[in-house]
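Predict structure. Chain length: 388.
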Amino acid sequence: MIQHSLRFVGLFLLAICSLAFPHATGTSKVAVRLIDPDSVTVEVNANTEELVNATHSTADTGSAMEKSRLFQERTESYLISRVNLTVNGRPVDNMRVVRWKLHGAGREDDFVHDTNLIMTSPSIITLGGSLPKERRVLKVTVNLWPELGVQAISEVSFFWRDSLLDRRWIKMDSPLRFEISPDSLAAALERTKHVEARANPAGTNLFARFIGLGYTHILPLGMDHILFVLGLFFFATVMRPLLIQITAFTVAHSITLGLSMLGIFSLPSRIVEPLIALSIAVVGIENIFSKKLRPSRWMVVFGFGLIHGMGFAGALKELGLPPGRFWSTLAGFNIGVELGQLTVVSIAFALTYWMWKKPWYRAWVVIPASVLISVVALYWFAQRTLGF
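Prediction complete.
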């Protein structure tokens, strides 16, 4: 019985630690622009890691130029199939990638030869196509990332030249329809002249969907946050100190999540992500060398929670929050995060609670688990600091 339980705990930790991926959010921004009555462009701002995984580009071999070419070809095919535009029921003609802009690189290319740059840098990829000339209805369906199993929400903006006509939030299977005619475009411009484009949930309960987004940001996608919570868990042999630490962590990350989303205070991800990894390592190392829980540990955990909150904010900032629904969607995301953390604690408790008072629990469970957590966290710290 003991051996089977220990083996299950070990496999559970190994499965978590083996997934050293950044946060996958399942979110995207899609801007549909009518340049003139006969042409359309679609700008897709998406998470690069999700795009690499969705196009199965991690295992490519060959020269840097060849890997770059394959990735861009697959990306073009993927986006055309997943951001689907039809006019009067027919696909838009000649859709293709017309621009690939790398964030912060100050460059826009049709073809980027630097594989490391294009597969790691955030990008805005623009597709272009032709529209038929008759009176028509344009339908947009965004269906990104279903193969990754993430909670997909997309912000779709509709522009006539440089004027924003509409902005809507949709789930992956909710199509949007826009009538394209001089009269309808003129009427839309008049409606938006003095009123900010509305946030329309398009039949979707955004509060509930942001709870789901927050939950999946922990399970299964937030491997670093999972390891931090497990690091707190494995040093607890009674529930009260663990609950105090979890509460301190929750309050702290809620503070910086809100401050970051309001634009009051934040740090760049190149600083936050290594600090998150380092916080996990510190907790794991303390578990190994400290035999008694210090009363002040909750204050250390609170400080680490402030850092993790800025990590959560980084995920939401890639998407933004809908105007008029800021506080409810932010609260939904935070609730989802807490539910994810409680699920992690509940699973760990169910597997180990009967071992807590055993004389071998620390030597056979706490120390090996903490060593594993620390090693993975230090690897993440080096990876995020040195960029390898």
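Summary: Residues 326-352 form the longest helix (27 residues).
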